[in-house]
Write a structure and sequence with these properties.
This protein is mostly helical. It is 60% helix and 6% strand. The protein has helices at residues 2-45, 58-67, 75-79, 82-86, 91-97, 113-120, 134-149, 158-163, 171-179, 190-201, and strands at 48-50, 102-103, 125-127, 165-166, 168-169. It has a three-stranded parallel beta sheet, covered by helices on one side. A two-stranded antiparallel sheet has the order 4-5. Helix 7 (134-149) packs across helix 10. The chain starts with a helix and ends with a helix.
Length: 202
């Protein structure tokens, strides 16, 4: 009868050690989960958003973001939200901000987006990039768009934008109408666009 008693004691000790290991593993997993949750929360709160207009060095700034180890939001995904921005539906833009840490250009550089994101992410940092002058910005913008949608030399016209196939045919014209209040027959009217630049940076 002694042997079964000894065996039972060994089994009890073995079971106790097994339970202890299980408890240690559970505590370790709980701690890891807690750290992961904390890291996710930090990730969700750490936002750096460039609100400078296109053609103010925003691509260079994105390179800086990446060099410092920030995850940069998908540029095209943001650009596709211009219709939501136009109706002031900022929920999809806020949702996009949960996918990364740093963002630039449309729709983040459009009017009113800043206020919505500042409310959604109180600890976010906003960077306003600028050119040396409104005219320098206008020249940079029209020169870039001319290379994309005109002949690379003249300022694009309404017809150029309507024919341009970017994302879908005519989208450049649609974006121009949503963002700028220039005359329809002169979508890059200089004085109006320079005033737009100055209002944005005020």
């Amino acid at each position: 009868m002694k042997f079964p008693f000894v065996l039972r004691r060994r089994l009890e000790k073995s079971e106790a050690r097994f339970r202890e290991r299980i408890e240690k593993l559970k505590r370790k997993l709980e701690k890891r989960e807690s750290i992961e949750i904390e890291e996710r929360e930090k990730f969700q709160q750490r936002k750096i958003i460039c609100v400078g207009l296109n053609k103010t060095g925003t691509t260079s700034l994105e390179n800086v973001f990446e060099q410092f180890g920030f995850t940069v939001g998908n540029w095209r995904s943001g650009e596709l939200l211009i219709e939501e921005w136009a109706t002031r539906d900022f929920a999809p833009i806020i949702d996009l901000c949960h996918t990364a840490e740093a963002f630039r250009d449309c729709p983040f550089s459009l009017p009113h987006t800043y206020a919505a994101l500042d409310a959604a992410f109180p600890n976010a940092k906003f960077i306003l990039t600028v050119r040396d002058s409104p005219e320098q910005w206008w020249r940079s913008l029209t020169r870039f768009h001319s290379k994309l949608w005109a002949d690379g030399e003249r300022v694009p016209t309404k017809e150029d934008l309507e024919k341009a196939d970017y994302v879908y045919p005519g989208r450049p014209w649609r974006s121009n109408r949503l963002v700028y209040d220039t005359p329809a027959d002169d979508p890059y009217e200089k004085d109006t666009l320079m005033a737009h630049y100055e209002r944005h940076n005020a």
